[in-house]
Fold:
Amino acid sequence: MTGEYAIDMRDGRMGRVMGRVGPYVQLRPPGGGKEWDCPPEDVRPVALGEVLRARVREINAQGRLP
Structure:
């Protein structure tokens, strides 16, 4: 599941699964940002359309100039 997108069902945020730390799944927002911990029972897979939108945001963020 690492590298895939998921939804934190507690608050609806989408993030890329970065790994696990202890009992938690670590998620990072599309395009980068601070990771957060989510209990695995509160993580759900993301529909393809949601993933595509997230990847476009991520690519756009990488292309921004400082």
